[in-house]
Amino acid sequence: MNKELEHSFVSLLEKHQNIVHKICRIYTDNYDSHQDLFQEITIQLWKAYPKFRGDSKFSTWMYRVALNTAITLYRKSKKTINTQKIDDIQFKIRSEEYDETEELQLKMMYKVIKQLSDIEKALVFLYLEDKNYKEIAETLGISEVNSRVKMNRVKKKLKTLLNP
Amino acid sequence: MKELDLLKKDWQNQNSDSDKFSFNDIYQMILKKSSSIIKWIFIISVIEFAFWHLLYLLPNNNTEVYSELEMMWFIYTTSIIHYIITISFIYYFYKNFKSISNSDTTKTLMEKILKTRKTVYNYVIYNLAAFGITYYSTVFMMYQKKEQLFEIDLIKEQLETLPQLKEIFFLTQSILGIVVIFIFGAIYFLLYGLMLRKLNKNYKELKELEG
Question: Which of residues 35-74 of A touch B (CB under 8 A)?
């Protein structure tokens, strides 16, 4: 693969890396696993990049490859050691006005999301990324109706987990 | 759900610079090797394909016995059929493997991986069955020619050192066949089950939605 292709890919990924970090945040719970998954997603994106035809947005294409890697292709590295918990290092309140109740609610939400299945996490991730049901359906390969049904079930599950 | 809406607001404002990788960091990553399940599926499948053929490389003196009992036609015929079937399996495995694309939808990707593994799964089932059929056919043919069999030098030598063997020769052979099939089958199914456990679980969850 030529240098030009490498350069264009790395530049695009550098620009859109936040998407990959967010996926890693949902699917991993420590710093080393986060780095490990980020690397595997990068490799998978790079492998698929020559086939990326540009008829969809780079970011839209990234969602699919990155989620596929997290859900199906990624094998947790044996050398990954549980070090710092990701919640502690990456959880930040961005609102300018500090609200203790909100912070607590957010912390709880992050905690219960970690208890969801891989597929449920994918739905929550796409929902948080403000994707509509059509886009969720197209990413996961299920029907639009089913993605709506599944998301409603996930919301119910989250409620139950928050208020056991 | 207000907690989820709150999270959505927070989520979309997330743009942590502390996590960010530089151009060079990302460039270094694309030079590294993948450790994805696809790579392992390929390695394990190739080992499984090769394994059954490596068994034939083990030293054995059976050819002498088969030749003496005029059973070589059976060995040649079954070997030719076996190689034709094996080549077909390898072709389908390669075709399915090449069709796996990480840019497919999650469900299609899972289906393609499972289809690829299914080819290897069927190959192992075929091998266990083919081994069982040819093994017991051979034992049966030997039994029919047992007088001739016990006169072959190689068998005679073994029987001289262990005369009791004559009485239980066919029983030992029959039990040995079952043990071999059981051990290989158990190892394989354990390996297959463990490797695809996560994938099967996620696929089932997506499929259930359609049910």
Answer: 38-40, 42-44, 46-48, 51-52, 61, 64-65, 67-69, 71-74
Out of B26, B103, B210, whose CB is closest to A14? B26
Give the closest residue to A70 by CA, choosing from B42, B114, B39, B199: B199
CATH 1.10.1740.10 fits A1-80, yes or no: yes
The domains of chain A are located at 1-80, 93-164
Q: In B15-28, which positions are buried (b, 16+ CB within 10 angstroms) versus exposed (e)?
A: eeeebebeeeebbe
For residue A42, the model assigns a pLDDT of 96
**How much is the pLDDT for B106?**
94
Q: What is the pLDDT of residue B54?
A: 75
> Does the pLDDT value for residue A119 go beyond 80?
yes
Q: Do A75 and B101 touch (CB under 8 A)?
A: no
Domain edges within chain B: 38-210
